[in-house]
Amino acid sequence: MNNVVPMTRKELETDNNIVVFEPINYTDVDTIAQKLLEDSAVIIKLGKLDIKSAERMVDFLNGVLFAIHGTINRLDKNIFICSPKNFKVTK
């Protein structure tokens, strides 16, 4: 009996990317969301945003992540990692 399951090359390839963003205004959220929709993880440094814009951005990205079954984790005071479902972030 043969228990080997053949896998195509495409199934073996992973194209996991991590992109770092340091947005300077809220309108940068579109680019960040697009990267998440393309299955890239995103590290976001919010230090250059005012508090209200940073809160709005995190809220919007939480909605995007909910839709794609992703997660958001705080790495530091103003630094977050947003990851689609194909990424696993452990502490």
Describe this entry's structure for a reader:
InterPro entries: Cell_div_SepF, Cell_div_SepF/SepF-rel, SepF-like_sf. Cell division protein that is part of the divisome complex and is recruited early to the Z-ring. Probably stimulates Z-ring formation, perhaps through the cross-linking of FtsZ protofilaments. Its function overlaps with FtsA. It comes from Lentilactobacillus raoultii. It holds the Pfam family SepF. This is Cell division protein SepF. With 91 residues, this protein is of the alpha+beta class. The protein has a single domain (18-83), classed as Translation Initiation Factor IF3 (2-Layer Sandwich), CATH 3.30.110. The chain contains 3 helices and 4 strands; from the N terminus they run H-E-H-E-H-E-E. The chain has helices at residues 9-12, 29-37, 51-67; strands at residues 18-21, 41-45, 71-76, 79-83. The protein has a 4-stranded mixed beta sheet with strand order 1-2-4-3, with helices on one face. The longest helix has 17 residues, at 51-67. The mean pLDDT is 87.
Keywords summarizing the entry:
91 residues; Cell division protein SepF; SepF-like_sf; 4 strands; four-stranded mixed beta sheet; 33% helix; alpha+beta; globular; Translation Initiation Factor IF3; cell cycle
* SSE series: HEHEHEE
Total strands: the figure is 4
Main β-sheet, spatial strand arrangement: 1-2-4-3
Dominant shape: globular
Specify the number of helices. 3
Distance between the termini: 41 Å
| Overall helicity | 25-40%
Oligomer: single chain
Could you say what the CATH architecture is? 2-Layer Sandwich
Full CATH superfamily name: SepF-like protein
Low-confidence stretches: none
CATH topology name, in short, is: Translation Initiation Factor IF3
The profile of the biggest β sheet is: 4 strands, mixed
CATH class: Alpha Beta
Q: How many domains?
A: 1
| Rounded Rg | 16 Å
Q: Mean pLDDT, as a whole number? A: 87
Organism: Lentilactobacillus raoultii
Function: Cell division protein that is part of the divisome complex and is recruited early to the Z-ring. Probably stimulates Z-ring formation, perhaps through the cross-linking of FtsZ protofilaments. Its function overlaps with FtsA.
Keywords: Cell cycle, Cell division, Septation
GO biological process, one term: cell division
